[in-house]
Amino acid sequence: xxxxxxxxxxxxxxxxxxxxxxxxxxxxxxxxxxxxxxxxxxxxxxxxxxxxxxxxxxxxxxxxxxxxxxxxxxxxxxxxxxxxxxxxxxxxxxxxxxxxxxxxxxxxxxxxxxxxxxxxxxxxxxxxxxxxxxxxxxxxxxxxxxxxxxxxxxxxxxxxxxxxxxxxxxxxxxxxxxxxxxxxxxxxxxxxxxxxxxxxxxxxxxxxxxxxxxxxxxxxxxxxxxxxxxxxxxxxxxxxxxxxxxxxxxxxxxxxxxxxxxxxxxxxxxxxxxxxxxxxxxxxxxxxxxxxxxxxxxxxxxxxxxxxxxxxxxxxxxxxxxxxxxxxxxxxxxxxxxxxxxxxxxxxxxxxxxxxxxxxxxxxxxxxxxxxxxxxxxxxx
Length: 381
Ligand code: IPM
Ligand code: MG
Prior knowledge:
Belongs to the isocitrate and isopropylmalate dehydrogenases family. It comes from Dysosmobacter segnis. The chain is of the alpha/beta class. The protein contains 14 helices and 12 strands. The strands form 2 sheets. A 10-stranded mixed beta sheet has the order 2-1-3-12-11-4-5-10-8-9, sandwiched between helices. The longest helix is centred in the first third of the chain and has 28 residues. The model has no long low-confidence stretch (mean pLDDT 95). It binds 3-isopropylmalic acid (IPM) and magnesium ion.
């Protein structure tokens, strides 16, 4: 193909993308009311094991949920439902990030607990996470990080469906010459994540929200993100909205002089992805963090870490740490209006991992296995 043919093809592609994204923004602008879990007669929790260490961790998370929700399961208010088929083998065989029948069974649930899923580098298979966030419109990625002894209590509101992720597998290429990806920010998409962050701040007595972008460089997309966050902030006069650039914010998080003054963060997708790994590391590693992906109809809670192929290859999968998936389970319980059970899980985890520490995990054979740790946890619950 000559250069002009590439340009024509890319222009047509861009027209399609722009039309799709404008339609999406219009659908979002119409909005839909969020589910009220406290009034629901029946809540279906889908369990998606994932790949690698995922099934090992999920089997243990299931035991914890079975115990915490024993009464609700017995009287039919809650169902724990295993979702099959979201495996790298099935996804590769079908060439789909989420095979159709799996997506249908996912959509029959109200909330989901998900283990890590493998994403091949390169190729065309899209990340199952990214596809699920889009298919279920899980626009808010909420990641709490707390280190009480350092005075750290942060909650990140990462926009979860836009930015570099919206069209990440649909860029254009002129082979051997140039590649171009697209970054998308919409009015409705920004407004709803900003509102989620400020609502959280208000409901939890927080006084400060940091809006983190690179608006000095990404003038259109991040510029719009910042402007809309400030428009939303105007409805929350008791909360200070501060602008920060992502580069200096990554430095701030490791600066003991100032980091404890930050409370709530709202940021576009990719910056949120990066900085929440940094924050999780400050808390003790990505294995300790949980992540909530929430929308108005569905919510998915997941471990922040990956599938740990090295642990599996070394035959040490059984020693994988369930802290992150259990943190995700805690966030799930909070989301379905069962805060007392979430608190109970959090307090018992704290006892087992910080104070009593009778069973120690190292992530390897020389420590307790995931199942042994959960035996201990269940005994203390
Ligand atoms: C995360 C992960 C995902 C992301 C990957 C697995 C697609 O890093 O949840 O932070 O980039 O969002
Ligand atoms: Mg990430």
